[in-house]
Amino acid sequence: MPELPEVEVTKLGIAPHLLGQSISAVNVIDGRLRWPVPKSLPTALPGQKVHTIERRGKYLLIELDAGYLLVHLGMTGTLRVLPCSDPLKLHDRVTFEFGKLSLRLHDPRKFGAVLWHPKSKGPIEKNLLLQKLGVEPFSPEFAGELGAEILYQTSRKRSVAVKQFLLAGQSVVGVGNIYCSESLFEAKIHPSKAAGKLTRPQCSRLAEAVRLILKKAIAAGGSSLKDFVNSDGDPGHFMVQTKVYDRKDQPCKVCKTPIKQIVQGQRSTYFCPSCQKR
Ligand SMILES: [Zn+2]
Description:
This protein has about 280 residues and is of the alpha+beta class. It folds into two domains: about 5-130, N-terminal domain of MutM-like DNA repair proteins (Alpha-Beta Barrel); about 140-270, Helicase, Ruva Protein, domain 3. Helix content is about 25%, strand content about 20%. Helix 1 crosses helix 7 (about 200-220) and helix 6 packs across helix 7. Mean pLDDT is about 90; it is low at about 230-235.
């Protein structure tokens, strides 16, 4: 599943090809995604120019003259920039043409989304899908001790396990399943610990770990940037070398204790029972 680092790298990959360009055509091949693709797009978008491309959580926000395209990659989505002359592939769902280039959303399982937020409806931050998201891990609001404070304040009185608290993204966005296990290991926090019991020093280590792990994943994905044009490649997950994730029974890279796997909220969590005390 594309996580924040994959979406960030997608943004970096497509932006140089699209910024300042105008949409010449929109082709909805199959609009039955997580929510139906608005039927108005093929008539409303041509002629509109791309002003900015930003990311909020796992949403890409493509700012056009009259509004924003919100694109989510769901479980299996990818966005590629290809020459319009390249034949469509099975599972290509929506294409946006910019003269000779085509931005294509490929999504086998159709959990992705392409939505439209007109500027007449107010600032994009007020969109219902974005309103409840936690802070961005690389924003000034989450920098240094501010990040620790946010984790500390938002977790008070929460009995939910810290792993699920992080994964929910209401405190800080972007810490998906793999990055949750890795961040908690880095911060030496047991994944089952109640979020409300986190101490200030633990929140401080966790905020630091979240920034570090996500930064590393984005850097690893940077090498796949060239694949956003003229490629069938799937960048997949960027974190090639995990310390705990998917390493059940293998020795901890710090203390050699076998890594444990547990299930929390139907998702696997990996941790070192010796390095990560409750
Ligand atoms: Zn260990």
